[in-house]
Amino acid sequence: MSDNLSELSYRSGGKSIFERMVEAGESASGVETIRRLGEETLFGDATTLGAVSFYDFLRKESLGKKVLVCNGTACLCAGTQKALGETLGERFGVEAVGHICCLGRCHEGGAFQYEGKNYSGQTGKGLDDLFVLGKGDDEDRYVVVSGLEVPQLTGEFVGCENYYAPFRELLGKDREGLREELKASGLRGRGGAGFPLEFKWSACRAAEGEVKYIVCNADEGDPGAYIDKYLMEKQPHSVLLGMMVAGWYAGAQVGVLYIRAEYPESVRVIGEAIEELKVAGLLGKDVLGSGFDFELKTIKGAGAYICGEETALLASIEGQRPEVRVRPPFPTVEGLYRRPTIVNNVETFANVRAVLTMGGEGYAGVGTKRSTGPKLLSLDSHFVRPGIYEVAMGTSLSEVMAMAGGFRGKVKAIQVGGPLGGVVPVGRIGELSVDFESFKEKGFLLGHGGVVSIPEGFPMIEYIEHLFQFTADESCGKCFPCRLGSTRGAELVKKARDGSGYQVDRELLDDLLETMEQTSLCALGGGVPLPIKNILEHFAEELRPQIGARAE
Ligand SMILES: Cc1cc2nc3c(=O)[nH]c(=O)nc-3n(C[C@H](O)[C@H](O)[C@H](O)COP(=O)(O)O)c2cc1C
Ligand code: SF4
């Protein structure tokens, strides 16, 4: 990421360069407008055109598509997408059907996007109603269940006046008090890595700079996860309140929610909630006479999984090619436009109100010693009652499965935590509890908490190919262990599946995974070996025809 470009981007003011690129990319005069944008902002057209070409939704080949079929992991395992793609191809022509990765409709399968809206689970008459009569049913139906005595993340919204009372109270207090509560709470980031919140917030607060930012990472790219989507669409104020508290604590003036384009409903609902806050006088200059100035805005992504990685996300907003950046410096010191920035996940921000209302110690009383507070899990369509489950950290995974009524059919494994999360054979589910430590100790990863089921009949070799191919498609390309390793891995596995009798050399595959794990710059290339290794360990027999045995 170039520092000069960051500064130019900061100075361009108003709408971010990325937002202008997206607008241009979606319009007919796209390339010319993007070229002019490069000249006007002094980025140069090579930079703007290079950045635009990175995004799935802005590529020339994506623009003519009428309908986009979800090819995320949950839909793949639901087995619905081949038939759906064929039906849509017959209706619109094969050329008009494109792909999109995870619409967060994992509870149903059969997801697709049409004219900017998401649908799922529709066949036959449902499709006729939508395409012929123009009356599609885009309702997103899933259960929301809390295992807590008092739901914290899934409770009922009580109106702005009551809901923001803890924030109003905070405005009259000193920031040190909040620091103590946050520290006592033990709240850790929910985006995957479990980083302590107080440490991050205090680092940004201590960083020098007149201008600071709060960024909400709402790029939820993990196929199988729709936790952030739920929070944004059904609990938008929980997320905004958390951002406002962060802004007040760190001395930031602007909060940005970077929301993936695959979630148009989230963009809409969050936008409306921001307007409600303006009407309630909780945003703008000198909020409630406290001297705190704060604004919130949304930025819609353009289809790139790596934009969930925080440094790539910041580069994206600046209009640069979203490549991962080497740290340090960390975003808390040099973040958006090289200004101190707090980047947190949607669910992390949503937890902040619980810390305020329960107090730091009260919050820490929910969960385990090291993984505190409530956690949301999203369960896919293989469960009897798919949906969002709120549990205290430390709850046994089997209990969550039981709350969801178990599996509908025969399932051999689940993948928890997205494509970089562990693949857990069903026989080992009983050993795990929903907390960072339990998963890590057993060789898996809790990650963000999306759960995808792999049915008995789904070939594990196909699942490995899917993981390699996903990484190859989404790699930012900055480091070659990931860029080349994922492509070579996908090639090896494809060859083993083509019926020619080719068997992957296990030593070669182990070397490849080790290289990716040890030498990739970020957790995309570095993380995907984990689920593949889990599969190799637990499903060696099934894989024997395609993958050779390890030499003793
Ligand atoms: C490849 C990759 C993808 C990521 N995707 C997301 C994402 O979609 N959402 C998210 O919040 N964090 C994601 N992260 C983690 C972020 O980089 C960052 O750690 C997180 O936003 C910090 O917030 P937290 O402390 O609240 O978890 C991703 C990381 C990597 C390496
Ligand atoms: S591991 Fe992959 S995504 Fe991460 S920096 Fe390297 S090339 Fe980019």
Q: How large is the share of residues in beta strands?
A: 5-15%
Strand order of the largest sheet: 5-11-10-14-12-13
Shape: globular
Secondary structure: helix percent: 40-55%
Tally of helical runs: 24
Alpha-carbon distance between the two ends? 45 Å
Class per helix and strand makeup = alpha/beta
- Which residues sit in consecutive blocks of at least 5 with pLDDT less than 50? none
Bound molecules: flavin mononucleotide, iron/sulfur cluster
Spatial extent as radius of gyration: 23 Å
* Biggest β-sheet description: 6 strands, mixed
> What is the arithmetic mean of pLDDT?
95
* Secondary structure tally: strands: 14
How would you portray this structure in words?
It is a single chain. This protein is α/β, with parallel strands linked by helices and 552 residues long. 44% of the residues lie in helices and 12% in strands. It is built from 24 helices and 14 strands. The strands form three sheets. It has a six-stranded mixed sheet with strand order 5-11-10-14-12-13. Strands 2-1-3-4 form a four-stranded mixed sheet. Helix 2 runs antiparallel to helix 3, helix 13 runs parallel beside helix 15 and helix 14 crosses helix 17. The longest helix is centred in the middle third of the chain and has 19 residues. The model has no long low-confidence stretch (mean pLDDT 95). The structure holds flavin mononucleotide and iron/sulfur cluster (SF4). The site of iron/sulfur cluster has 15 residues, from helix 21.
